[in-house]
Write a structure and sequence with these properties.
Elements (H helix, E strand, L loop, with lengths): L1 E8 L4 H17 L3 E2 L5 E9 L3 H10 L4 E3 L2 H6 L3 E6 L3 H13 L3 E4 L7 H14 L3 E3 L7 H12 L5 E9 L25 H16 L3 E9 L4 E3 L5 E3 L5 E8 L4 E7 L10 E7 L2 E5 L4 E5 L23 E2 L9 H15 L7 H20 L3 E2 L6
Helix pairs in contact: 1-8, 4-5, 5-9, 7-9
Length: 381
């Protein structure tokens, strides 16, 4: 069987291990490789790369893997490894991606691709000049709820879409009496942390792929919890934003309002929910669920604060059935990228798409610091 070698840099980290190694590459391996359009399969062979050899060795032993190293340069120099994948912290990503481009590797990376839009656009230009295939993780588009939402949009269910409202977040413990469930660097801007940097690249690709290009942003970012406790029990000053409230204008006149917060307690069905309202119907969508209310089944509320409301609003919505098998979104996108590399399949989620996400985060921060609405240009090479 044909094989394709994949360098996995940062595979011992939280996302690199859980989503990319365990639930994607190893799952593809255990299925006999990625299936191509002609029905043949190509087996994936990972090379784990990290800073600590003992962690790599333990991971390799646990999952019956042969290849691991702490020498990224040596791995990049070896022609056996065709793909370089990157799951490092953002601050370390650009130098590693530039090395991979120079080595002629096809590249698949987490987002954000860089800390600044200038660097992100430079990566897209370097990759184009080098002729290397490149992809950026757009995992939320593959969630069951958003795939159902995409079907609704494509079917014309909404009529003319008017607005999108989104709530994302949960309470991240401060780390004193209860351990924090996110790493401490997320709350230090000097280490690349912040919820705008983390989430706005996601919001960009969700909005532009489902509804239309983001043409402007108005954002307010804040640090609600100024002091936290790190993984070693040391108190540190939180310098990054942990909550952001934003309004985005989209092509076609759609308004999107998205709140992102690590300082909110969940009182909704899922950790992220979007409500989409259109002239012919509305939908409320989460990671998995999707419920709808068409125009013809919309109740008629009447505002009267003097008497209890007799309408059970939750009961007036209808759950959209799965009608399909939804696999892990990270795995599905990995398979699409592998087909892109192996047989030239489509791949719209490239470095240029990643750069647009970095631009939205950068301009979101500028909007917050200046208190102004920022218009966004079209991004091209």
């Amino acid at each position: 069987m044909r094989e394709i070698g994949i360098i996995m840099n940062g595979a011992t980290g939280r996302m690199g291990y859980r989503q990319h190694l365990l639930r994607s590459i190893l799952a593809i391996r255990d299925e006999g490789g990625v299936e191509l359009s002609d029905g043949s399969r190509v087996q994936v062979v990972p090379m784990l790369v990290g800073r600590t050899e003992s962690k790599l060795a333990e991971l390799a032993r646990r999952h019956d893997l042969e290849h691991y190293t702490t020498d990224l340069d040596a791995a990049l120099a070896d022609p056996r490894w065709q793909i370089y994948s990157d799951f490092l912290v953002t601050k370390a990503r650009v130098p590693a991606l530039k090395k991979a481009i120079a080595a002629g590797k096809d590249i698949y990376t987490e987002k954000p691709t860089a800390e600044t839009f200038t660097e992100a656009l430079e990566l897209a230009r370097l990759a184009r000049a080098a002729g290397v295939k490149n992809g950026v993780v757009h995992d939320k588009l593959y969630l069951p709820g958003l795939r159902k939402l995409a079907r609704l949009v494509e079917s014309g269910f909404f009529g003319r879409i008017l607005s999108v409202r989104g709530e994302f977040g949960y309470w991240v413990f401060e780390g004193d009496w209860h351990p924090a469930q996110r790493p401490s660097w997320n709350y230090r801007s000097e280490d690349g942390g912040g919820i705008i940097v983390d989430m706005f690249p996601h919001w960009n690709y969700v909005l532009e792929n489902l509804f239309g290009r983001v043409t402007s942003v108005y954002a307010h970012a804040t640090t609600e919890i100024p002091e936290r406790v790190d993984e070693h029990g040391a108190t540190y000053r939180a310098t990054a934003d942990d909550a952001a409230y934003a309004v985005f204008e989209l092509e076609g006149g759609i308004t999107a309002q998205l709140n992102s917060s690590w300082t909110t307690r969940v009182n909704r069905d899922e950790l992220v929910e979007f409500q989409v309202d259109g002239t012919l119907g509305s939908a409320v969508v989460g990671l998995f669920g999707c419920k709808i209310q068409p125009r013809t089944a919309t109740p008629q509320p009447v505002w009267n604060p003097d008497v209890p409301d007799a309408i059970d609003y939750d009961a007036t919505w209808v759950e959209v059935p799965d009608n399909a098998t939804f696999e892990n979104g990270f795995k599905v996108q990995w398979e699409e990228f592998l087909r892109h590399v192996l047989e030239g399949g489509p791949n719209p989620y490239d470095f240029l798409s990643g750069a647009r996400g970095v631009l939205l985060a950068e301009e979101g921060l500028r909007s917050s610091s200046t208190g102004t609405r920022i218009a966004l240009p079209e991004v091209t090479l």
